[in-house]
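Lecture 7 notes: from sequence to structure.
We start with the chain below.
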Amino acid sequence: MLVRVARVLTFFFIVSLLVVATGCSSRSSYITVDGTALGTFVQVKCNTTLSPTDIASIIEEVDTQAKASMSIFDSNSLLSQINRNETEVVDEHIAYNINLARRFSEISDGAYDITIKPLTDAWGFGRERSTGEDINVDSLLEFVGYEKLTLEGDRLIKSDDRIQVDLNSIAKGYVVDMVAERLEELAIEEYMVNIGGEVRCKGHNPRNQLWSIGIETPYDGNMAMDSFEKIIYIEDAAVATSGNYRRFYITEAGEKVTHTLNPRTGYSVVSSLLSATVVADECAVADAAATMFMALGSEEALEVAKECEAEYGWKYYFIFADGDGYRVEASTEFIE
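Predicted C-alpha coordinates for the same chain:
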Protein backbone atom coordinates (compact mmCIF):
# COMPACT_ATOMS: atom_id res chain seq x y z
CA MET A 1 0.00 0.00 0.00
CA LEU A 2 2.80 2.39 0.92
CA VAL A 3 4.56 1.59 -2.37
CA ARG A 4 1.36 2.38 -4.33
CA VAL A 5 0.94 5.72 -2.50
CA ALA A 6 4.56 6.56 -3.17
CA ARG A 7 4.10 5.83 -6.89
CA VAL A 8 0.98 8.00 -7.00
CA LEU A 9 2.76 10.89 -5.28
CA THR A 10 5.71 10.49 -7.64
CA PHE A 11 3.33 10.61 -10.63
CA PHE A 12 1.67 13.82 -9.45
CA PHE A 13 5.07 15.39 -8.72
CA ILE A 14 6.23 14.65 -12.27
CA VAL A 15 2.97 16.02 -13.74
CA SER A 16 3.36 19.17 -11.64
CA LEU A 17 6.87 19.68 -12.96
CA LEU A 18 5.60 19.28 -16.53
CA VAL A 19 2.83 21.84 -15.94
CA VAL A 20 5.31 24.34 -14.52
CA ALA A 21 7.71 23.74 -17.41
CA THR A 22 4.93 24.13 -19.98
CA GLY A 23 3.72 27.32 -18.31
CA CYS A 24 7.20 28.80 -18.43
CA SER A 25 7.67 27.95 -22.10
CA SER A 26 4.39 29.61 -23.11
CA ARG A 27 4.87 32.76 -21.04
CA SER A 28 4.40 35.87 -23.17
CA SER A 29 7.01 38.59 -23.59
CA TYR A 30 7.45 41.74 -25.65
CA ILE A 31 9.06 41.35 -29.03
CA THR A 32 9.89 43.87 -31.76
CA VAL A 33 9.59 43.02 -35.44
CA ASP A 34 10.89 45.36 -38.14
CA GLY A 35 10.08 45.00 -41.82
CA THR A 36 8.55 46.69 -44.85
CA ALA A 37 5.06 46.99 -46.29
CA LEU A 38 3.45 49.26 -48.88
CA GLY A 39 6.91 50.48 -49.83
CA THR A 40 7.67 51.88 -46.37
CA PHE A 41 8.94 50.72 -42.99
CA VAL A 42 6.97 48.62 -40.52
CA GLN A 43 7.55 48.10 -36.83
CA VAL A 44 5.40 45.93 -34.60
CA LYS A 45 5.92 45.68 -30.85
CA CYS A 46 3.70 43.25 -29.00
CA ASN A 47 3.38 41.11 -25.89
CA THR A 48 2.97 37.58 -27.20
CA THR A 49 3.98 33.93 -27.04
CA LEU A 50 4.50 33.94 -30.81
CA SER A 51 7.90 34.22 -32.42
CA PRO A 52 9.14 37.22 -34.45
CA THR A 53 8.90 34.97 -37.53
CA ASP A 54 5.18 34.41 -36.85
CA ILE A 55 4.53 38.17 -36.61
CA ALA A 56 6.62 38.85 -39.72
CA SER A 57 4.52 36.31 -41.61
CA ILE A 58 1.34 38.18 -40.62
CA ILE A 59 2.80 41.47 -41.88
CA GLU A 60 3.86 39.87 -45.17
CA GLU A 61 0.46 38.26 -45.70
CA VAL A 62 -1.42 41.50 -45.05
CA ASP A 63 0.96 43.47 -47.29
CA THR A 64 0.46 40.98 -50.12
CA GLN A 65 -3.34 41.19 -49.79
CA ALA A 66 -3.34 44.98 -49.68
CA LYS A 67 -1.10 45.43 -52.72
CA ALA A 68 -3.05 42.90 -54.77
CA SER A 69 -6.23 44.77 -53.92
CA MET A 70 -5.58 48.51 -53.59
CA SER A 71 -2.21 49.45 -55.09
CA ILE A 72 -2.23 52.06 -57.86
CA PHE A 73 1.45 51.32 -58.51
CA ASP A 74 0.89 47.63 -59.28
CA SER A 75 -0.64 47.33 -62.74
CA ASN A 76 -2.02 43.89 -61.85
CA SER A 77 -3.89 44.98 -58.71
CA LEU A 78 -7.66 44.87 -58.64
CA LEU A 79 -7.86 48.64 -58.27
CA SER A 80 -5.66 49.15 -61.33
CA GLN A 81 -7.97 46.87 -63.30
CA ILE A 82 -10.97 48.87 -62.08
CA ASN A 83 -9.28 52.11 -63.11
CA ARG A 84 -8.71 50.67 -66.59
CA ASN A 85 -12.39 49.61 -66.71
CA GLU A 86 -11.46 45.95 -67.07
CA THR A 87 -13.82 45.02 -64.24
CA GLU A 88 -16.50 46.57 -62.04
CA VAL A 89 -16.22 44.01 -59.26
CA VAL A 90 -14.62 45.17 -55.99
CA ASP A 91 -13.35 43.11 -53.07
CA GLU A 92 -14.04 43.71 -49.37
CA HIS A 93 -11.00 45.98 -48.96
CA ILE A 94 -11.86 48.36 -51.79
CA ALA A 95 -15.55 48.40 -50.87
CA TYR A 96 -14.81 49.24 -47.23
CA ASN A 97 -12.48 52.08 -48.09
CA ILE A 98 -14.75 53.58 -50.73
CA ASN A 99 -17.62 53.65 -48.25
CA LEU A 100 -15.41 55.14 -45.53
CA ALA A 101 -13.96 57.71 -47.92
CA ARG A 102 -17.44 58.93 -48.85
CA ARG A 103 -17.96 59.88 -45.21
CA PHE A 104 -14.95 62.21 -45.33
CA SER A 105 -15.97 63.64 -48.70
CA GLU A 106 -19.33 64.58 -47.21
CA ILE A 107 -17.81 66.03 -44.03
CA SER A 108 -15.40 68.18 -46.05
CA ASP A 109 -17.85 69.15 -48.81
CA GLY A 110 -15.62 67.48 -51.38
CA ALA A 111 -12.20 68.64 -50.17
CA TYR A 112 -11.38 64.97 -49.56
CA ASP A 113 -11.97 62.85 -52.64
CA ILE A 114 -10.59 59.47 -53.72
CA THR A 115 -11.36 60.15 -57.41
CA ILE A 116 -8.42 62.54 -57.39
CA LYS A 117 -6.09 60.14 -59.26
CA PRO A 118 -6.15 62.02 -62.61
CA LEU A 119 -4.98 65.13 -60.77
CA THR A 120 -2.42 63.17 -58.74
CA ASP A 121 -0.94 61.75 -61.95
CA ALA A 122 -1.02 65.07 -63.77
CA TRP A 123 0.81 66.90 -60.97
CA GLY A 124 3.51 64.22 -60.75
CA PHE A 125 2.60 62.31 -57.61
CA GLY A 126 1.41 59.16 -59.34
CA ARG A 127 3.47 56.67 -61.32
CA GLU A 128 5.10 59.33 -63.54
CA ARG A 129 6.50 62.67 -62.48
CA SER A 130 5.30 65.86 -64.15
CA THR A 131 6.46 69.46 -63.87
CA GLY A 132 2.86 70.64 -63.89
CA GLU A 133 3.46 73.01 -66.80
CA ASP A 134 0.88 71.83 -69.35
CA ILE A 135 -1.97 70.61 -67.15
CA ASN A 136 -5.50 71.35 -68.30
CA VAL A 137 -7.06 71.40 -64.85
CA ASP A 138 -10.58 72.22 -66.06
CA SER A 139 -10.68 69.17 -68.31
CA LEU A 140 -9.42 66.90 -65.52
CA LEU A 141 -12.03 68.19 -63.08
CA GLU A 142 -14.76 66.92 -65.39
CA PHE A 143 -14.10 63.39 -64.17
CA VAL A 144 -13.18 64.11 -60.56
CA GLY A 145 -15.90 63.91 -57.91
CA TYR A 146 -16.84 61.31 -55.28
CA GLU A 147 -20.52 61.64 -56.17
CA LYS A 148 -19.70 60.12 -59.58
CA LEU A 149 -19.06 56.72 -57.91
CA THR A 150 -21.77 54.32 -56.74
CA LEU A 151 -21.38 50.96 -55.03
CA GLU A 152 -24.08 48.47 -55.89
CA GLY A 153 -23.31 45.30 -53.98
CA ASP A 154 -19.84 44.27 -55.13
CA ARG A 155 -19.98 46.42 -58.28
CA LEU A 156 -18.49 49.90 -58.60
CA ILE A 157 -20.48 52.02 -61.04
CA LYS A 158 -18.81 55.07 -62.59
CA SER A 159 -20.75 57.87 -64.22
CA ASP A 160 -17.77 58.36 -66.55
CA ASP A 161 -15.26 55.70 -67.64
CA ARG A 162 -12.41 58.18 -67.20
CA ILE A 163 -12.95 58.28 -63.42
CA GLN A 164 -10.10 56.66 -61.50
CA VAL A 165 -9.75 55.88 -57.81
CA ASP A 166 -6.71 56.53 -55.60
CA LEU A 167 -6.91 55.05 -52.08
CA ASN A 168 -3.42 56.10 -50.95
CA SER A 169 -4.85 58.63 -48.50
CA ILE A 170 -6.61 55.90 -46.53
CA ALA A 171 -5.07 52.54 -47.44
CA LYS A 172 -1.97 52.76 -45.24
CA GLY A 173 -4.08 53.38 -42.16
CA TYR A 174 -6.37 50.57 -43.23
CA VAL A 175 -3.43 48.17 -43.49
CA VAL A 176 -2.34 49.17 -39.98
CA ASP A 177 -5.84 48.20 -38.83
CA MET A 178 -5.60 44.90 -40.71
CA VAL A 179 -2.38 43.97 -38.91
CA ALA A 180 -3.75 45.12 -35.54
CA GLU A 181 -6.93 43.11 -35.97
CA ARG A 182 -4.92 40.01 -36.90
CA LEU A 183 -2.97 40.42 -33.66
CA GLU A 184 -6.18 40.72 -31.66
CA GLU A 185 -7.56 37.58 -33.31
CA LEU A 186 -4.52 35.83 -31.82
CA ALA A 187 -5.42 37.17 -28.35
CA ILE A 188 -2.59 39.75 -28.38
CA GLU A 189 -3.89 42.60 -26.22
CA GLU A 190 -0.77 44.79 -25.94
CA TYR A 191 0.79 46.03 -29.14
CA MET A 192 1.91 48.92 -31.30
CA VAL A 193 1.71 48.69 -35.10
CA ASN A 194 3.59 51.40 -37.01
CA ILE A 195 3.55 51.52 -40.81
CA GLY A 196 5.28 54.54 -42.26
CA GLY A 197 4.34 56.69 -39.26
CA GLU A 198 0.70 55.61 -39.13
CA VAL A 199 0.21 53.96 -35.74
CA ARG A 200 -2.33 51.91 -33.81
CA CYS A 201 -1.78 50.91 -30.18
CA LYS A 202 -3.49 48.82 -27.57
CA GLY A 203 -2.73 48.24 -23.90
CA HIS A 204 0.62 49.39 -22.56
CA ASN A 205 4.24 49.38 -23.67
CA PRO A 206 6.98 47.12 -22.23
CA ARG A 207 7.43 49.57 -19.32
CA ASN A 208 3.73 49.22 -18.51
CA GLN A 209 3.15 52.82 -19.55
CA LEU A 210 1.07 54.48 -22.25
CA TRP A 211 2.52 54.28 -25.74
CA SER A 212 4.46 57.42 -26.68
CA ILE A 213 4.07 58.74 -30.24
CA GLY A 214 6.18 61.53 -31.69
CA ILE A 215 4.74 64.26 -33.93
CA GLU A 216 7.44 65.37 -36.35
CA THR A 217 8.76 68.88 -36.71
CA PRO A 218 7.33 70.01 -40.07
CA TYR A 219 10.32 71.60 -41.77
CA ASP A 220 10.68 71.14 -45.53
CA GLY A 221 12.42 67.91 -46.48
CA ASN A 222 12.37 66.35 -42.99
CA MET A 223 13.24 62.82 -44.06
CA ALA A 224 15.17 61.72 -40.98
CA MET A 225 12.05 61.47 -38.80
CA ASP A 226 14.19 62.16 -35.73
CA SER A 227 13.02 65.68 -34.93
CA PHE A 228 9.78 65.87 -32.95
CA GLU A 229 7.61 68.85 -32.15
CA LYS A 230 5.49 66.98 -29.62
CA ILE A 231 5.22 63.60 -27.86
CA ILE A 232 1.69 62.37 -27.14
CA TYR A 233 0.68 59.38 -25.03
CA ILE A 234 -2.12 57.04 -26.04
CA GLU A 235 -3.67 53.62 -25.48
CA ASP A 236 -6.35 51.80 -27.45
CA ALA A 237 -6.20 54.36 -30.23
CA ALA A 238 -4.68 55.14 -33.63
CA VAL A 239 -2.64 58.12 -34.81
CA ALA A 240 -1.94 59.47 -38.30
CA THR A 241 -0.20 62.61 -39.52
CA SER A 242 -0.41 64.30 -42.90
CA GLY A 243 1.83 67.15 -43.95
CA ASN A 244 3.28 69.03 -46.90
CA TYR A 245 6.89 69.16 -45.73
CA ARG A 246 8.11 65.89 -47.29
CA ARG A 247 6.40 65.23 -50.63
CA PHE A 248 6.65 68.34 -52.78
CA TYR A 249 8.64 69.85 -55.61
CA ILE A 250 9.45 73.30 -56.94
CA THR A 251 8.42 74.20 -60.49
CA GLU A 252 10.66 76.05 -62.93
CA ALA A 253 8.65 79.14 -62.07
CA GLY A 254 9.68 78.74 -58.42
CA GLU A 255 6.29 77.61 -57.15
CA LYS A 256 5.98 74.88 -54.52
CA VAL A 257 3.67 72.01 -55.51
CA THR A 258 2.68 69.72 -52.65
CA HIS A 259 1.14 66.25 -52.83
CA THR A 260 -2.00 67.54 -51.08
CA LEU A 261 -4.30 68.56 -53.92
CA ASN A 262 -7.67 70.26 -53.68
CA PRO A 263 -10.16 68.30 -55.81
CA ARG A 264 -12.48 71.29 -55.79
CA THR A 265 -9.93 73.51 -57.59
CA GLY A 266 -7.55 70.98 -59.12
CA TYR A 267 -4.50 72.74 -57.69
CA SER A 268 -2.02 72.10 -54.89
CA VAL A 269 -3.22 73.30 -51.49
CA VAL A 270 -1.47 76.51 -50.42
CA SER A 271 -1.93 76.92 -46.69
CA SER A 272 -0.18 77.84 -43.45
CA LEU A 273 -1.26 74.45 -42.06
CA LEU A 274 2.00 72.48 -42.14
CA SER A 275 0.84 69.23 -40.58
CA ALA A 276 -2.33 67.69 -39.19
CA THR A 277 -2.26 64.84 -36.67
CA VAL A 278 -5.44 62.97 -35.77
CA VAL A 279 -6.13 60.45 -33.00
CA ALA A 280 -9.11 58.14 -33.55
CA ASP A 281 -10.23 54.59 -32.79
CA GLU A 282 -9.18 53.24 -36.21
CA CYS A 283 -6.08 54.12 -38.20
CA ALA A 284 -7.97 54.26 -41.50
CA VAL A 285 -10.15 56.96 -39.95
CA ALA A 286 -7.17 58.87 -38.56
CA ASP A 287 -5.36 58.59 -41.90
CA ALA A 288 -8.25 59.89 -43.98
CA ALA A 289 -9.10 62.62 -41.46
CA ALA A 290 -5.52 63.93 -41.41
CA THR A 291 -5.51 64.13 -45.21
CA MET A 292 -8.92 65.78 -45.18
CA PHE A 293 -7.75 68.52 -42.82
CA MET A 294 -4.69 69.24 -44.96
CA ALA A 295 -6.91 69.46 -48.04
CA LEU A 296 -9.27 71.86 -46.28
CA GLY A 297 -6.36 74.21 -45.53
CA SER A 298 -5.75 76.52 -42.62
CA GLU A 299 -8.97 78.50 -42.86
CA GLU A 300 -11.41 75.57 -42.74
CA ALA A 301 -9.44 72.78 -41.04
CA LEU A 302 -9.56 74.06 -37.48
CA GLU A 303 -13.29 74.75 -37.58
CA VAL A 304 -14.08 71.32 -39.01
CA ALA A 305 -11.67 69.63 -36.55
CA LYS A 306 -13.53 71.11 -33.59
CA GLU A 307 -16.83 69.93 -35.04
CA CYS A 308 -15.45 66.42 -35.59
CA GLU A 309 -14.05 66.27 -32.07
CA ALA A 310 -17.46 67.16 -30.66
CA GLU A 311 -19.34 64.71 -32.88
CA TYR A 312 -16.93 61.79 -33.34
CA GLY A 313 -14.39 62.19 -30.55
CA TRP A 314 -11.40 62.60 -32.90
CA LYS A 315 -8.51 64.47 -31.29
CA TYR A 316 -6.26 66.77 -33.33
CA TYR A 317 -2.86 68.43 -33.21
CA PHE A 318 -2.27 71.04 -35.92
CA ILE A 319 0.99 72.86 -36.60
CA PHE A 320 0.75 76.15 -38.49
CA ALA A 321 3.49 78.30 -39.97
CA ASP A 322 3.75 81.52 -37.97
CA GLY A 323 6.38 83.95 -39.19
CA ASP A 324 9.75 82.31 -38.65
CA GLY A 325 8.29 79.74 -36.28
CA TYR A 326 5.29 77.51 -35.60
CA ARG A 327 1.91 77.88 -33.96
CA VAL A 328 -0.02 74.95 -32.49
CA GLU A 329 -3.77 74.44 -32.27
CA ALA A 330 -4.80 71.19 -30.59
CA SER A 331 -7.30 69.29 -28.49
CA THR A 332 -7.15 70.28 -24.82
CA GLU A 333 -5.35 67.13 -23.61
CA PHE A 334 -2.43 67.80 -25.98
CA ILE A 335 -1.79 71.32 -24.70
CA GLU A 336 0.61 71.48 -21.76
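Points to note: The domain at 34-334 is CATH 3.10.520.10 (T-fold). The chain has a mean pLDDT of 87.
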